[in-house]
Amino acid sequence: MKEHPILFSTEMVRAILDGRKTQTRRICKFEAIDSWEISCLVRNGVYFRIKDRPDIPSQRIDFPYGQVGDRLWVRENILLQREKKTPYFDVLYCADLSHFDNGHELDDWFMGYRGWYDSGLDKQIIPSIHMAKWAARIFLEITSIRVERVQDISWKDILAEGCDVNKPTGDPSIDDFTAGVEATDTFHWLWDSLNAKRGHGWELNPFVWVIEFKKL
After folding, report:
1. Which residue of 5, 80, 119, 205 has the smallest Cβ count within 10 Å?
2. Domain boundary at 95, 111, 132, which?
3. What share of the chain has pLDDT > 70, as a percent?
């Protein structure tokens, strides 16, 4: 069993903490055109092939987060906050402003942010990409991995992604079709807000890793 870092936005961290998020979709870095399709999924990767062209070798892409049974430690935005009238500071998690309680490990790491401290500012957000592993509070176990096009997501999976949408059942005023359209639109917006600027927008319908997990 290995551990791998994974980034989540503050909104998605809240969804994990609330128990609403049990899936995440990440770009499968494969420059695929429409003629490429999934050949087979192996233990820690996937093979792609060109449809109706057995003479062209398949291409393998490795899963970047290990394999089923491995753990993910969540990188999230944290906040450094100066304690008033003292030379000390607090570390808080931006998602819920809870405190980090392992202060004996902060000294060496904090030296990288000495410029902020000496500037006299009271607060400084540290982006998730810079969060050290010792500050991780959320660990996830990978329970399933698959590959699909991002637009193939179902409404059940949209709920598992942590989106706040109407369920197709349970509300007589909302029919299944309407709920499904609303859910897809919500995830479409979420996906583009995180991935469009990186060249992986919804309309391009990229291949994605679908990672299912449980919070430990």
Report:
1. 119
2. 132
3. 75
Measured at the alpha carbon of residue 36, what is the angle toward residues 32 and 39, in degrees to the nearest 5? 120
Distance between CA atoms of residues 94 and 97, nearest Å: 5
Q: Is 120 helix (H, G, I), strand (E, B) or coil?
A: coil
Q: Is the pLDDT of residue 150 over 60?
A: yes
Rounded-to-10 torsion of CA 183, 188, 189, 195: 150
Q: What is the pLDDT of residue 177?
A: 46
CA distance 166 to 157: 13
- CA–CA distance, 4 with 27 (Å, rounded to integer): 16
pLDDT at 50 over 80: no
Q: Tell me how crowded residue 80 is: count the other CB atoms within 10 A of its CB.
A: 19
| Count of Cβ atoms closer than 10 Å to residue 61 Cβ | 16
What CATH number has the domain bearing residue 20? 3.10.400
Average pLDDT over residues 76-80: 89
